Amino acid sequence: MLDPLFRKLGQFTELSDGDKQLLHDAVVDVAQHGPREDLIRQGDRPGRVHLLVEGWAARYKLLPGGERQIMAYLIPGDLCDVHVALLQQMDHSIGTLSRCKVAYMQDKALTRIIEEQPRLAKALWWSALVDEAITREWLVTMGRRQADKRIGHLLCEMLLRCKAVGLTADDSFELPLTQEELGDTLGLSHVHLNRTLQKLRSDGFIGSNGRRMVINDLDALMAFADFDPIYLHQERGRA
Amino acid sequence: MLDPLFRKLGQFTELSDGDKQLLHDAVVDVAQHGPREDLIRQGDRPGRVHLLVEGWAARYKLLPGGERQIMAYLIPGDLCDVHVALLQQMDHSIGTLSRCKVAYMQDKALTRIIEEQPRLAKALWWSALVDEAITREWLVTMGRRQADKRIGHLLCEMLLRCKAVGLTADDSFELPLTQEELGDTLGLSHVHLNRTLQKLRSDGFIGSNGRRMVINDLDALMAFADFDPIYLHQERGRA
DNA sequence: CGCAAGATTGAAGTACGTCAATTCCAGTGG
DNA sequence: CCACTGGAATTGACGTACTTCAATCTTGCG
Asked: Could you tell me the strand order of the sheet in which A68-74 lies?
C-alpha cells in the first residue's frame, strides 16, 4: 500500500526493509474518500498526517469572490501535511479531486522516525524541499508563461511525477481532472483552457482517451513548454 | 547584527541568551554586496548558508526568452538557503536587489543546532514553513488577482514582514525596488505596473517619497486587496 | 432512454502587453 | 551652484491574450 511512497523516497535514497517497516507501522488507519471531499480545511488545527495512497488531491484556497486557486496537486506517495504540525492552523485547504485512498499516520511515530532515523528523515525532508521547488516553478509558470506553455509545462511535470511513483504506461497517465479544475490550477478560465488544449492536441503534442492523458512526444513538448526537470530533483534518475 | 533574525524567530518562540549566542557563533564571515549581484546561481552546489543582515535580495529564475520571474523577496533576518543543503544543486538563483550585508554561517554549526537544540530547531523550521506559505500565497495572487490587488497585497505583506523585523516607521518602509523588478515579481509589465501604482496612489491607498513606501490606510488596503495575514503565521502577535 | 456534468463553440468585452517617446531625477564633475 | 548624464518613471497609441456570457453538444451512467 505504501509502495508509491517507497518509490518516491527511493529516488533520493535506498530504503532498507527496516525503513519500510517503520513507515508501515506508523500507519494507524486507512480511509476511502469520494471526489471533492475536503481532507483538511483552512483554519483547522492540523492533527494526523495524511498520506495519499490512491487518487489525486489538491491544496487550494478560496477567494472572497468565490474563485479558487489550486496551489499543488497531491498524488499517490505524497504526504499532505508533515510540515504543518508546527503551525497553529492551516492557511489553506486540502480536498480530493478523484476518489482517494488515504492512510493516516500517527504524527508521534513520524516524529520519532525523524529524530531517530537520520537517513529516512533526510528522505522526508528532501521530499518536502521538492514540493517547495514545485511551488516555485508553478509561480514562474503563472507569472511568465502563456496558456499553451502553461498547460504543456504542467503536463510534463505530472508525467514525470507519475512516472516516479509507477503510475504511467508509455508516456500516458490518468488525469482525473475537469477542465475547470485545470483552469483553477493555471489561473485560466475553463473556456480558454479548453481552446488551448485543443490547440495542443491539433499540434500533435498530446492525445487523450477520456481521463487518460497521452503525451505523444515528450521531448517536443518539453522543448515547446520550456520544461527543465531539474527542479524535480529526481536525483537518482527516473524510474 | 543578528537582531532581525532574533526578532523574526522571536515571533514564534522566546529565545534565550544561550540560543542567541549559538546562532552568533555559527557566523563565520560577513560581507557587503552591491546591488544586483548574484549570491548563488542556478546550478551551483549549495555551500555555506547565507543570512541576510541588511538590504533586500530575491530568489529568481531566468527564462530562455530573457524574462525574469522573482519568486521571493529576502529581507533582513531571512536565511537564504538552509534548506537546500540536501539538494544536489540550486534550481534557482539568488541575487541582491539593493546593497546588502550578508552573514555566512557554517552549515555544520547550523546542523548541530538543529540536532541538539530542539526549540531553536523548531523556530528555524517554523520560519521555513512560513516561507513556503508565502510562496503559496504569491501563487494565489498571480493566478487570481488583478494588477491593483496584486500590488496592494504584496505591499501589505511586505509591510508586515518588515514590521516583524523592526524595519518600519508608522506604516512605511524602505522599498529598494525598481518598477521593473516589481513587475518581474508580479508577472506584470513595468508599464502596466506603473499605471496601476498611480491608480493606487490617486485612490489614496499609498503615498511614496522616493524609495520609501507609505501605506496611508493599512486597513483599507488590506480590505481592498483581500489580504488575510493568517498565512504569515505571526503567531505571537506583531512587534 | 434520460439526465446531469462536463466539453465545446461563438461573439463581444477588457485587462493586460509592446513599442517608442518623453520626462524626471539623483549623482557627478566642473 | 549649475550643466550633464544615465537610469528610472511616465505617457500615448495600438495590439492581443485572455475573460465573460450564453448557448449547444457530448458523454458517462442509473
From this structure: A38-40, A93-96, A57-62, A68-74
pLDDT of B239 > 70? The answer is no
Query: Which residue matches cell numbers 546591488?
Result: B35
Nearest chain A CA: its distance from B208 CA (Å): 26
| Distance D16 C1' – A75 CA (angstroms) | 36
Q: How far is A47 from chain B (nearest CA, A)?
A: 17
Indicate yes or no: CB of A136 within 8 angstroms of CB of B132.
no
Nearest-by-Cβ selection for A87 from B72, B129, B144 = B129
B48-99 confidence digits (pLDDT tens): 899 999 999 999 999 999 999 999 999 999 999 987 778 888 999 999 999 9
Alpha carbon of B135 to those of A133, A215, B2: distances in Å?
A: 10, 29, 24
Q: How far apart are CA A64 and CA B20, in angstroms?
A: 42
B139 with A69: Cβ contact below 8 A: yes
Q: What is the DSSP string of B49-106?
A: EEEEEES-EEEEEE-TTS-EEEEEEE-TT-BS-SGGGGSSS-SSEEEESS-EEEEEE-
pTM of the model: 0.95
pLDDT in tens, B92-124: 999 999 999 999 999 889 888 888 888 898 899
**Which of 174-233 (B) contact A at CB < 8 A?**
184-187, 226, 230-231, 233
Tell me: pLDDT of A8 over 60.
yes
pLDDT tens-digit profile of A22-75? 999 999 999 999 999 999 999 998 778 999 999 999 999 999 999 999 999 999
Give residue-wise pLDDT tens across range A223-239.
999 999 999 998 765 44
The answer to whether B53 and B30 are in contact (CB under 8 A) is yes
**Is A71 near chain B, with CB under 8 Å?**
yes
**Chain B residues touching residue A137 (CB < 8 angstroms):** 91
Q: What is the rounded distance in angstroms from the CA atom of residue B88 to the CA atom of residue A213?
A: 31
User: Three-class SS string for chain A?
Assistant: CCHHHHHHHHCCCCCCHHHHHHHHHHEEEEEEECCCCEEECCCCCCCCEEEEEECCEEEEEECCCCCEEEEEEECCCCECCCHHHHCCCCCCEEEECCCEEEEEECHHHHHHHHHHCHHHHHHHHHHHHHHHHHHHHHHHHHHHCCHHHHHHHHHHHHHHHHHHCCCEECCEEECCCCHHHHHHHHCCCHHHHHHHHHHHHHCCCEEEECCEEEECCHHHHHHHHCCCHHHHCCCCCCC
